[in-house]
Amino acid sequence: MKLLKVFMVCIIFFIALSGCSESDDQSSSDNQQDILISVKNISIIRDRDRTLDWSHENELIAFSLLGDDGYYDVATMKEDGSDLICLTCDNPNLPNKHISNPAWHPSGEYIVMQVEKLDHFGSSVYSTPGIGFNCDLWLMSNDGHDYYQLTNLITKLNYFDTNKTTGVLHPHFSHDGNKLLWGQLKEPISGRAGGGDWELKMADFIVEEDSIYLENIETFTPGDQTYWYESHGFSINDEMIIFSGSLLPSQDDSGMDIYTFNYLSGELVQLTNTFQVWDEHAHYSPDGSKIVWISSVNDFDPSDWRGTMKTEYFIMDSNSANKTQLTFFNTPDHPHHSIFNGARVICADSAWNAEGNKIMASIAVDDQPYIIEIVLNLIE
Predict the structure, then answer these.
(1) Can you tell me the distance from the alpha carbon of 350 to that of 52, in angstroms, rounded to the nearest whole number?
(2) Which residue among 4, 104, 131, 355 has its CA within the 20 to 30 Å range from the CA of 284?
(3) Residue 30: CB atoms within 10 Å
């Protein structure tokens, strides 16, 4: 437990992988002149848990629940935090180490998650929700009764093992439920904000009467610089994936931008253009017209991202127009600043409700994880 606490700061920074705000791209008055969305209310739902997804079918939140043993499990709750059920706690079908980053199948029948292997080389600290080393993809039924292992990656087992450490991060289903997207670690590299070399993976999701599995796995590494990718999901028509990465020549890991990639045509579109700003965790609104993402603020320094990281939620049109800042936790004298008494806030992953007027969000406040709900003002 003491070791886990010591490494907590590192874990939280990896959750927040993203950035963007005070660059010219995000602060342009021309970009913001037509914005009709603002924050109406912010509520604290949980004060110790992380990474989440919102099922539009059954209106439940799946999230990473931090246990007293220092490991994460996957639990569900209602929007207000009530009716909490831990689906993976002490489950004999699972390794019972870190189990996290849940994402709903659009049917509401299944939850995909990243699950730490029982045996591997290195600390479990690097298998937490925002890092994913030594993890595989697993699937479970929405009641936690049935389980299916979707990947079984070869990873380093001990110091003398010549295999490289592998892992998975942030799986997401397509809107039609037929494909699964995730980030996959090729090789850990010390000192990088993303922890190593990554690639994007996509596969067909197959459900049969007595089996569920992945097939036709594809690998994508778009861009000029191909070592850091984090998957965020699919466009509404499922023809594009949205992700963050440092794809420009000599761009630092911590200066990542948001992109879409049409995996049918190969077209790559850059949605943020902020070479030294941390942009991440981009998610389409339910109607596909908007994208919420996080971005670094307040004199962020890519070379000292651990020391200078502060992020906020931003919103833009799906074509990257009309970028504007939604939250101001790190802005003195703003009402949002007082919610956490001026503490340092790192906004991270989020999920929309079905109506598109609320966002459930995962943040870190002075290194402590919180789950909050953001209610939006939508002006027609």
Answers:
(1) 7
(2) 131
(3) 8
Whether 125 shows a pLDDT value over 70: the answer reads yes
pLDDT digits (tens, 9 = 90+) for 171-216: 999 999 999 999 999 998 877 767 889 999 999 999 998 899 999 9
Would you state the structure tokens that stand for residue 185, as one six-digit string?
């670690």
Q: Which residues pair with 368 in a beta bridge?
A: 365
- How many Å apart are CA 299 and CA 320, to the nearest integer? 23
Kindly tell me the number of DSSP H helices and DSSP E strands found in the chain. Answer: 5, 24
pLDDT digits (tens, 9 = 90+) for 243-296: 999 999 999 888 999 999 999 999 999 999 999 999 999 999 999 999 999 999
Q: What structural domains and CATH numbers belong to the chain?
A: 2-378 (2.120.10.30)
Question: How far is the C-alpha of 180 from the C-alpha of 318, rounded, in Å?
Answer: 21
In 10 A of CB 115, how many CB atoms? Answer: 29
**What sign does the dihedral 352-357-360-364 (CA atoms) show?**
positive
The C-alpha atoms of residue 162 and residue 380 are separated, in whole angstroms, by: 59
Q: Please answer whether residues 376 and 37 qualify as being in contact, where contact means their C-beta atoms are separated by less than 8 angstroms.
A: yes
The verdict on pTM exceeding 0.85 is: yes
Q: Which helix (H) or strand (E) holds 15?
A: helix 8-15
Which residues, 6+ apart, have CB-to-CB distance to 295 below 8 Å? 18, 19, 20, 21, 26, 272, 274, 277, 278, 279, 311, 312, 314
Cα–Cα dist 26/198, whole Å:
27
Please enumerate in sequence order all residues whose Cβ is within 8 A of that of 162, keeping only pairs 6 or more positions apart, or say none: none
